[in-house]
Design brief:
The complex is a heterodimer of chains A (55) and B (151). Chain A is built from no helices and 3 strands. Chain A has 55 residues and is mainly β. A 10-stranded antiparallel β-sheet of chain B has the order 1-4-5-10-7-8-9-6-2-3, with no helix packed on it. The chains are: A mainly beta (55), B mainly beta (151). β3 of chain A pairs parallel with β1 of chain B, so a sheet runs across the interface.
């Protein structure tokens, strides 16, 4: 998991911190489309989805 | 942005490996804004990616909330930047489901509205506001899978 934040002042998602699981190559801002610089790389947490799902 | 195939080729142009490899390339990660009513939800992006081949876009999102949303607020998911549908009339472009954690899964139809909203069976409004009316809470999951045309 990584965290990412868009710093563009005119972006509608400006300064909103996102926490993203899985492959974190090429993370793009959903607000303005710029490439984000992820930080705080850490292991993905275990999911607690709420119900067991049989494979 | 990104490395998806957007066409724009001209007559006589030499096709490069980079161009050919962009067709059906690895999907791009983005950061969707997920809202319940006017409230932007905080949470974890379990998966939020899109792919594009010329005028066709696919998007899949799974977002797990770590905070509370508005009571009975319409739940919405944003498109990748610059990739809203060419037509945002109400019609289905995919599926929309909500896990009200510990309670139920709710399954609906994703609408081409901008941002994406979900319609469930028998509802008189979009999911979150009705059928089911709900307040998003910790561990709830909002997920969409859509395919649509862009300009």
């Amino acid at each position: 998991m990584i965290s990412a934040k868009c710093t563009a002042s005119d972006c509608p998602q400006h300064d909103v911190e996102y926490h993203i699981m899985g492959d974190h190559q090429n993370v793009w801002c959903g607000g303005c489309g710029v490439a984000l610089q992820p930080y705080d790389l850490r292991p993905d947490p275990e999911l607690s989805i709420g119900f067991p799902i049989e494979p | 942005m990104a490395t998806q195939y957007t066409a724009g080729l001209s007559t006589g142009q030499v096709l490069t490996a980079a161009t050919m490899n962009s067709i059906g390339a690895a999907w791009e990660t983005y950061t969707p804004t997920v809202k319940a009513g006017a409230t932007t939800l905080t949470g974890t992006v379990l998966y939020a990616r899109w792919a594009r081949i010329q005028k066709t876009v696919w998007v899949q999102v799974a977002f797990q909330s770590t905070g509370a949303g508005a009571a009975n607020g319409i739940i919405t998911v944003s498109y990748p930047s610059g990739l809203a549908p060419i037509n945002t009339d109400v019609r289905t472009i995919g599926t929309f489901h909500i896990l009200d954690s510990g309670t139920a899964w709710y399954i609906g139809s994703a609408s081409a509205t901008n941002p994406i909203q979900g319609l469930a069976y028998g509802g008189g409004n979009y999911m979150g506001a009705a059928t089911p009316a709900m307040t998003i809470a910790n561990n709830d999951v909002i997920s969409v899978a859509v395919c649509y045309e862009v300009a």
